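INPUT
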Amino acid sequence: MVKVGGSLGDDMSRACADIRDLVAEGSSVVVVHGGGAESDRLAAELGRTTRYLTSGGGRRSRYTDAEALDSLTLGMLGRVKPPLVVELLRTGVRAVGLSGVDGGLVTARRTPPARVVVDGVDRVVRDDLSGRIADVDPHLLRTLLDGGYVPVVSPPALDPEAGPLNVDADRFAARLAVALGADWLIVLSNVPGLLRDQDDPASLVAEVPCDDLAAHLDLAGGRMKVKLRSAGEARLAGVPHVVLADGRVPSPVLAARAGSGTTFVEGAR
Ligand SMILES: Nc1ncnc2c1ncn2[C@@H]1O[C@H](COP(=O)(O)OP(=O)(O)O)[C@@H](O)[C@H]1O
Ligand SMILES: [Mg+2]
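OUTPUT
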């Protein structure tokens, strides 16, 4: 399982040649991508404002009203996924683009209305269309992998009652890795891994004990926190090799497999 972060922009395609090499050596590969940054750009082009809400616990997240979900879906499925699929096809990989909705792949439950702060105002938000992943049915992915295809997957996921929902792409990748019994979960982003000091790329934390994430969570800002949590959960749920690594280097997947980045290990050290 290779997750390429939306923050990588055009660097997302750096993973494609590595994926070709892995497929050539007989590995089954699934690609998950995000696309928040591109969706924000698209929203701006459409004259839409991206709003954020802050929960009681201080967590800041995107306010996904119907218009924002539309921008996210258009961005991920229309702007981010096609060039990835095209680049993989160009290198000789039989890539297929999908969302979590296709084939009932990822089911989610909508986040219930909550008291939050939006634009400095305390209010109850009832129209947020985001949720948590409830279930993964990997049947479609297995069918594609057995046929020699490389699925390129992203949110949204489907709530049978509320419809398509935005879910976090790092969680999405982690849950798919667990459901497929993947050997590897490689999460590529625009940083070398978890850093002790966000402004110092040399301050990489090489190993994180997955059953003692708490201390490390304090190091991480909001968007890195969810990466740590979901990667740690995947490791605890049985994915043997879980790495957060730099997607901006020439051979990012092979470098991560060779030990660069932040690796999740069992047991406190
Ligand atoms: N301790 C940390 N180490 C590394 N990155 C961090 C840390 N805390 C916060 N971050 C931020 O997390 C970002 C990566 O998350 P995000 O922007 O969501 O990337 P992606 O698109 O790959 O999911 C980094 O660019 C960095 O700004
Ligand atoms: Mg992110």
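end of record. The chain has a mean pLDDT of 95.
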